[in-house]
Design goal:
By secondary structure, the chain is an alpha+beta fold. It has helices spanning 18-32, 71-84, 105-122, 177-187, 202-212, 226-238, 253-262, 284-292, and strands at residues 52-59, 65-66, 69-70, 88-100, 125-134, 142-152, 168-171, 216-220, 240-245, 276-279, 301-309, 314-318, 324-326. The strands form three sheets. The protein has a seven-stranded mixed β-sheet with strand order 8-10-7-11-9-12-13. A four-stranded mixed β-sheet has the order 1-6-4-5, with helices on one face. Strands 2-3 form a two-stranded antiparallel ribbon. The chain is globular, with a radius of gyration of 21 Å. One of its GO terms (biological process) is protein maturation. It comes from Thermosulfurimonas dismutans.
Amino acid sequence: MASGDRDYILLDHGSGGRATHRLIREIFYSAFEASGEGFLDSAILGTHSGPLAFTTDSFVVDPIFFPGGDLGSLAVHGTVNDLAMVGARPLYLACGFILEEGLPLADLKRIVLSMARAAEEIGVKIVCGDTKVVPKGKGDRIFITTTGMGEILADPYPHPRRIEPGDEILVSGPIGEHGLAVLSARESLPLKGLRSDSAPVWPLVEALLKALGPAVHALRDPTRGGLATTVNELAQEAKVEIELLESEIPVRAEVRGGCEILGLDPLYLACEGRFVAMVARGKGEEALQVLKELPGGHEARLIGQVRNQTDRPLVILKTAIGGERILPVLTGEPLPRIC
């Protein structure tokens, strides 16, 4: 093996032999043993008295490093946030890696260490996983699949079927930052001040559930398709008409300016560290104060309400100039490979 070859992923790393064992021991095991019990093909999990939530997601973001995050932290945040959306405290993660021949080992190590830090920060254990290597040109550097398990602490747990007329709608922070930050990094656009919002939302969700209990009717994270598509999905599942107030939806000036230049709508850009909450009538201000007192929630806003039950679910946006327009689901994919 040439000395330079030791700096990159080789097909030999997927053979199951000495190179595979060295890769797992030196990169994966050394990073993940602190957050779990090593990095095994199977894990033995503890017993839990309550119901468990289970989810899986794959991450193929391009570029793999972007302002405010990277593929590794995103793979952890995306999965623990999905667990949080049903009121589940994240407990365990399993992860699978598809590595392309030629990937610099330094990049792989950086991503794995980022995953380990993100898991430690939220208190989730990475307990098992797998790696596969594909020939150069048959992948795109690295893909990660994470599967998560969490303990549901909410009773009843948040679900769109619990949405009712009069429910008040909050968003936990400014929207559109992840999607635009990734696009800007991918295309080397000269847009300043952009950072992904990628972050775990469980601390905010846990506080909301403790304060409001069953008054938290539904939660959803606005990832692909952004806020507009997410709220439409909730309306469709609950069979309700929803009203959003454009003037109350938080959008940072950097995101708004970038969208104006590129002809994009921040309402359809992905977030990776925000969530939408539907809470019972009269509970919106209390929920807002809970979020505003916590790190990551100080820019939360009340952005709308559920109008009524209907056989024709839709989302109506009350514009900043006083008009109304129907806010449709995203059509097409203007920003592929953002998560």
